[in-house]
Amino acid sequence: MKHLAKSALCAIYKYSGVMRAQETLAYRAGRSFMTILLFHRVTDDIPRDGLTVGTGWFRDLCKMLRRRFNVQPLAEVMRLLNEGGAAPPRTVAVTFDDCYRDNLFAARILAEQQLPASFFIPSGIVGTDHVFEWDRGLKAMPNLTWDEVREIADLGHEIGSHTVSHPDLAKISEEVMRRELIASRQRIEAEIGRRVRWLAYPFGGRANFRAERLPIVYEAGYEACFSGYGGFVDPSVKGKVIPRDAVPCFDSLLNLELHLSGCLGWMYALKRRVGLI
Ligand SMILES: [Zn+2]
C-alpha cells in the first residue's frame, strides 16, 4: 500500500507540473545538476544487480534520455564544468566501465538514438577470457575484443582508460600506478588511432583512490579522473575526482528522472512530510 502511495506521489509530482516549476526555480538560482551516468552491463543473461540492467529497460532509458535530457559527450560536460557558468538543464553524459562484450550492444542502441557515450576499458583485459573476481559463479560473460572496441569508437563513442589490469590504485605504489596509466593510454591510442583523454579508476569507491595522487593522472596524459560514487557535476568538483552515478541503483525510470532533474531531494522531503518515509 505504502509502495503504491509512493509511486502515486512521484507520478503526481511529475505530471502536475510541480517538478518542472522546481527545476526552473533551481536553474534560475544557478544550481546545476549535470550528471554522469555509470553502467557496467546491459544483458538479460543474468538478473538485474548492482552492475547490470536488462536490455528492454536500457532501450526505454535511452528513449527517455533522448526525449527529455540533454545528453552530451564527456568533453562537453568537462568544458561546461571547467569554464563555469550555468550548464543547460538536464545535461547528462553516459559512461560504461570494464569492457563486457554486451557494451557493444549498448553502444549500438545508444548510436541508434544518437546518444554519445564513453567506454572505459582495462586495456590488458580486452580480447582475453579474464573473469573478474566478483563475477565468479555467474554465467560466463565475454570481454570485448579490440575489433569490437574499434567498432564502438566508429559508432561515434569515445574510449577512455580503466587502467591495464584493473588494480586498486590506492593499494599499489605510485610507480606501478604511473605505469598502469601510461601503458593503458598508449595501448588504447595505438589500437583505435584516437586520443584517450579520460581515466576512470577501478572499483570507483572513495577508498580506491588517493586524492593526493591526482597529479599523477594528469602527468600520465589524462585530463580528468572519474569515480564510481555518485554526485552532481557542479563547481564543487572542479579540479577534483569527478563523480558518476551508478544507474542500477535507481529502481525505476521515473525515480531516475527525478534524480537527474535534481528533484529527488524535494521528493524525499515531501514523502517525509506526508509520513511515507
Ligand atoms: Zn571496473
What are the salient characteristics of this protein?
277 residues; alpha/beta; TIM Barrel; 6-stranded parallel sheet; two-stranded parallel sheet; 10 helices; 12% strand; binds zinc ion
Write up this protein.
- The structure is a single chain.
- With 277 residues, this protein is an alpha/beta fold.
- The chain has 2 domains: 39 residues; 223 residues, Alpha-Beta Barrel (TIM Barrel), CATH 3.20.20.370.
- The protein is 40% helix and 12% strand.
- The protein has 10 helices and 10 strands.
- Strands 1, 4, 5, 6, 7 and 10 form a 6-stranded parallel beta sheet that branches. It has a two-stranded parallel ribbon with strand order 2-3.
- The two termini are 13 Å apart.
- Zinc ion binds next to loops.
Note the main sheet: 6 strands, parallel
The number of helical segments is 10
Determine the strand fraction and express it as a percent band: 5-15%
In the CATH hierarchy, the third-tier topology of the largest domain is known as TIM Barrel
CATH architecture of the largest domain: Alpha-Beta Barrel
Q: What is the typical, i.e. mean, pLDDT?
A: 92
* Topology order in helix (H) and strand (E) letters: HHEEEHEHEHEHEHEHEEHH
Total domain modules:
2
Task: Report a brief summary of the structure.
This protein is an alpha/beta fold and 277 residues long. Helix content is 40%, strand content 12%. The protein binds zinc ion.
